[in-house]
Amino acid sequence: MHPFRFAHAAGDDWREIAQRCLDQLDTVRPGANLGLLYVTDSLADDAGDLLDRLAEATGVRDWVGAVGIGICATGTEYYEEPAAAVMLGEFPPDGFRVFPALVDDLDGFDERNGDWIKAHSPMLALVHGDTANGRTESLIQQLAQRTTAGFLVGGLASSRGTTYTIANGLSQGGVSGVLFAEEVGLITRLSQGCSPIGPHRTISEAQRNILITLDNRPALEVLKEDIGPACLSG
Question: Are residues 153 and 220 in the same domain?
Fold first, then answer.
């Protein structure tokens, strides 16, 4: 078992960022076979070129990841600047299964991955979703049912421009990621999370990550209404 190799960098363009990351990954082990790539939305339009460069230089064919308004790396946050974070892992050749974006349903997913799922009983999947698709919540729930434990980790892509998820290429409007076989040992840690409360709401006004109004009403007023008096008094 080998630890992940990782790198992160900011720069003026994707070529500079790619090279800075590769310089940090200059001791990549020959067995690395799965890459994770996260880029800020300032780099979204060049994410495909960056992905191709990293895949060519490292020899890693399988990649997953997403675009985000901001990204975190070890002791570093990148926001409102072109930046990328990369991780490379080594797994048994049949220990994982990358799946491209699911947009409408899981029919094609089941056809392509059904036999592998039966053989390897995946316990966990790393998943990235695009909230532009109104079916994202349903797709995630259906995907969880394809794992033995119903356990998914990952997050939602975000961008002030074009939003992409990554699964051996860029895609929009769907849910994509990688399934891990039961025999692959993984440890997860929660960085942040939330639970839904109340009905679905529409963000009608916001300043960056601060909600001003929901459904054209003051956001604080709506929050108090949704959480109820018991939570407010506690």
Answer: no
